[in-house]
Amino acid sequence: MPDAPQLLHQIPDLDVITAPAQLAKLSLDYFHFSPILEPQLREKRADVVVRPTTEPQFYQIAAIARQTQTPITVRGSGTGNYGQCIPLQGGIIVDLSNYNEILWIHDGIARVQAGVKLAELERQSRPMGWEWRMVPSTVRSATIGGFIAGGSGGIGSVRYGQLRDRGNLHAVKVLTLEEEPRIMELRGYDAVQQVVHAYGTNGIILELEVPLAPAITWLEWVVSFADFWHAVHFAQTLGKSDGIQTRLISVHADPIPTFFTPLRSHLSPGHAAVLLILAVSDQEAVIDLIEQFGGWCSFTQTAPAPGKGGSLMEFSWNHTTLHARSADAQWTYLQSLFPADPEFRVMRQMAEMFGDEVPLHLEFIRQNGTLIPAAIQLVRFTTGDRLQEIIAIHEAHGVLIANPHTYLLEAGGMKTVDRAQLQFKRLVDPQGLMNPGKMAAWND
Predict the structure, then answer these.
(1) Residue 322: closest CA among 310, 312, 314, 334
(2) Which of 54-58, 77-81, 376-380 has the lowest mean pLDDT?
(3) CB 164 within 8 A of CB 193
(4) What does the pLDDT look like over 381-414, one tens digit per residue?
(5) 51, 85, 108, 176: which could form a disulfide with 15 (CB 3.0–4.6 Å)?
(6) Of the candidates 82, 97, 112, which is a domain's last residue?
């Protein structure tokens, strides 16, 4: 029987990649942020990569994978950090980078193919008066399909919550790996949740329909504070000020700001920094609040155009970890939600306990209508046992850890089996060929 690469080469006009150097590049993501995942995943490779451009090509790829019982893993730009798009069992990688048409934008809604880059969607939306509701810090290169399948939130979550929140995704078009592959259009909250943040384990996402937000002229500020907790309380008060429009409230304890090399001349050693993206119309109110909490604005600029470099977005969320690791590769990170408490008592306790070993980095978001600080702490890595001990101590104090040191879907942020996602996988991927090894419930 012919193998999958041989059959894939027979699909007209399909870009098929088998060169070892390209296979290596296109089989990996930013898993090396984790010293636990790095040795587990660094040697994983696909047998072949394909870059489809038409829906019939996707059908043929799915049929070949089903016919030859070959694993299939879908990839966006590979900007994830947990090995979401790394093929654990080889097989076919479907690279979406050439499937990137914006189908339409109207009435604050966009219909796009899954390989569309987020920055390109925002660039085309803005002249019509719209922008993305939320984007990852990797906005310049990330695709919408990869963000929906592997992300959870980002810049804009302080206003619009997270991707899984009701209203943030209208529809998803997926291709199944049934005996006869077919197209399914999922609409409505419960239906789309079957594929949101599922790592591509239960359907090949082809198209998405997403709501946009009214476009705003944004300013980007760095605000410095001599005291970290003054910075945290300022950020909390700003985030709760419903009359002030913000897109990013990102808080960084010393020494994290020292890793921001391009901003170094605007920062004071030993001080905390808050990165803000705020509406130009609200700057006077924000200046009053900064003064109230004893801070000062040390850098300001108009937000760069979509897709351009130099935005403060690229110092927030997990770009913070990237900058830290560029300075010292021993840094890794955690993702945490602290108990709701306006005085941050547990957070203070953890900060006193771990000191410079786990410096705090907070991203304020909305969860179920409430403003909360999502922590993306840096961790100075020593051993796997010590990292697990740090996690266990946080959890013992009521801190929810979304563990970034596992590639298993449920072991990261979900913590429990998503029965709807599991049942959907049984329907659309009965042979378990889609990104195998990532869904613990299926493995069991």
Answers:
(1) 314
(2) 77-81
(3) yes
(4) 999 999 999 999 999 999 999 999 999 998 876 6
(5) 51
(6) 97
179 burial via Cβ count (<10 Å: 0-12, 13-18, 19+): exposed
Q: Please check whether residues 182 and 131 belong to one and the same domain.
A: yes
- 195 closest CA partner among 212, 178, 207, 180: 207
Find where tokens 């980007």 sit.
220
Whether residue 136 is contained in a domain is answered as yes
**Token pair of 301, please?**
């600029």
Provide the token pair at 303: 């937000």
- The single residue listed with the structure tokens 């979406």 is 96
Cα 218 from chain centroid (whole Å)? 22
Which pTM was predicted? 0.96
**DSSP string covering 334-386:** --EEPPP-TT-HHHHHHHHHHGGGS--EEEEEEETTEEEEEE--EEE---HHH
> Helix or strand or coil: residue 222?
strand
CA distance 92 to 323: 32
Q: How far apart are CA 304 and CA 397, in angstroms?
A: 41
Contact criterion met (CB below 8 Å) for 230 and 289? no
> How high does pLDDT run on average in the chain?
95
3-state secondary structure of 433: coil
Domain that holds residue 287: 218-302+310-401
**Alpha-carbon gap, residue 283 to 306, rounded angstroms:** 21
Looking at the structure of the chain, the number of domains it has is 3
Decide: 151 and 135 in contact? Cβ < 8 Å: no
Judge whether 10 lies within some domain.
yes
User: Strand pairing partners for 213?
Assistant: 131
How far is it, in rounded angstroms, from Cα 125 to Cα 119? Answer: 10
H-helix or E-strand spanning residue 205: strand 204-211
What token pair was written down for 400?
């929810």
Contact partners, residue 255, CB within 8 Å, separation at least 6:
356, 359
Checking if the pLDDT of 10 tops 70, the result is: yes
Strand segments (E) across 176-217: 183-187, 204-211, 213-214
